[in-house]
């Protein structure tokens, strides 16, 4: 119990509960106030049997089971009827707490970008374009891709093999497309996003939207980001709420460009502090543009010297983690071919 309550003595038929305070006096409080005080005290187990319905006051005893409000997790109800009846009283507090919970997830620093690590060298993938295999939908860094090609030439192999699964790479675009379709049939979100991107560039926006929607439903971060741009740019019916939702989902998954776009939206709406948080998170993932925006905000006085220094050091550490001799050799090789 909290420092101000000793025990609940009984429940009234209405929506109040009679309490015995530490000094022995009795007090009557609304059920919702009682639950809020218990939650704030942090000394009561949320699954404890003393929890009661926020509308009618029924306690969790015997066969009575309570359902938690899945938006705010602050209150419980014994039935859907009680939940609907209490909605008008609970709506404001529910929305406020739900927004707070969303921000806790949104502003959590991801361990890595949405790309993750190269499955061969196990180093973080660069934010620059990488290679994707059609047979297993693995995203491979350019260093490992070049190393695979060098090995093939040294061993005088005529057949190109996937650097990850060693499956023969089809010699024609039709064979590659067939592999990709097989991955889509296996519900591979990376393959869905890949085909969706191709449809987008070909001007088939309806198909692109369909593929992106399916891929995002399976947790593909870049598909969320692509959907946000389609809602923003009018390739589907413009919807600011859905644009923001998909940007947030991509950002939570570690997508730096989505995070940067969220920061820009916050700047445009005068929420500079939120924008700084977004830019900080993206910069720490190695995103160059976010770091430049932080420098501009520092000049304007919106970012402290300490925060900018932290962002610069973390950004450099993230960029360095993406480097390797193989990747540098691949970059030099590609530069020579240009």
How helical, in percent, are the residues?
A: 40-55%
Mean pLDDT: 87
Q: Strand order, main sheet: write it out.
A: 1-2-3
Identify low-pLDDT runs: 1-14, 40-50
How much beta, percentage-wise?
5-15%
Following the backbone from N to C, one meets helices and strands in this order, namely EEEHEEHEEHHHHHHHHHHH
Number of helices: 13
DSSP strand tally: 7
Overall shape: globular
Oligomer: single chain
Instruction: Report how far the terminal alpha carbons are from each other.
Output: 71 Å
Descriptive keywords:
338 residues, mainly alpha, 3-stranded antiparallel beta sheet, two-stranded antiparallel ribbon, 13 helices, globular
Question: What is the structure about, briefly put?
Answer:
By secondary structure, the chain is mainly alpha-helical.
Topology overview:
Elements: E1 5-11, E2 16-21, E3 26-30, H1 31-41, E4 67-68, E5 76-77, H2 80-106, E6 131-132, E7 139-140, H3 142-154, H4 173-185, H5 189-201, H6 205-217, H7 221-233, H8 240-252, H9 256-268, H10 272-284, H11 288-299, H12 305-321, H13 325-337
Antiparallel strand pairs: 1-2, 2-3, 4-5, 6-7
Helix pairs in contact: 3-13, 4-5, 5-6, 6-7, 7-8, 8-9, 9-10, 10-11, 10-12, 11-12
């Amino acid at each position: 119990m909290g420092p101000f309550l000793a025990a609940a003595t009984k429940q009234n038929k209405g929506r109040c509960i009679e309490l015995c305070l530490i000094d022995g006096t009795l007090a009557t409080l609304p059920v919702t106030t009682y639950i809020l005080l218990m939650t704030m005290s942090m000394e009561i187990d949320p699954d404890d049997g003393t929890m009661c319905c926020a509308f009618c006051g029924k306690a969790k005893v015997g066969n009575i089971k309570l359902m938690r409000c899945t938006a705010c997790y602050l209150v419980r109800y014994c039935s859907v009827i009680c939940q609907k009846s209490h909605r008008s009283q609970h709506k404001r507090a529910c929305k406020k707490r739900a927004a707070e919970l969303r921000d806790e997830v949104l502003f959590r620093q991801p361990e890595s970008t949405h790309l993750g690590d190269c499955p061969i060298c196990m180093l973080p993938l660069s934010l620059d374009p990488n290679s994707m295999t059609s047979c297993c939908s693995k995203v491979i860094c350019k260093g490992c891709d070049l190393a695979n090609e060098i090995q093939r030439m040294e061993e005088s192999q005529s057949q190109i093999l996937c650097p990850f699964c060693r499956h023969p790479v089809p010699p024609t675009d039709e064979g590659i497309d067939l592999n990709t379709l097989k991955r889509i049939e296996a519900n591979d979100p990376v393959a869905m996003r890949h085909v969706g991107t191709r449809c987008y560039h070909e001007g088939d926006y309806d198909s692109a939207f369909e593929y992106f929607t399916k891929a995002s439903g399976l947790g593909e971060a870049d598909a969320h980001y692509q959907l946000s741009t389609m809602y923003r740019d009018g390739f589907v019916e413009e919807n600011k709420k859905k644009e923001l939702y998909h940007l947030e989902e991509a950002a939570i998954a570690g997508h730096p460009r989505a995070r940067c776009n969220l920061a820009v939206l916050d700047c445009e709406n005068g929420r500079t502090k939120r924008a700084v948080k977004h830019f900080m998170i993206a910069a720490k993932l190695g995103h160059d543009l976010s770091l430049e925006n932080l420098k501009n905000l520092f000049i304007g006085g919106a970012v402290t010297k300490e925060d900018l220094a932290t962002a610069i050091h973390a950004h450099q550490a993230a960029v360095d983690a993406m480097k390797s001799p193989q990747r540098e050799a691949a970059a030099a090789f590609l530069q020579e071919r240009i």
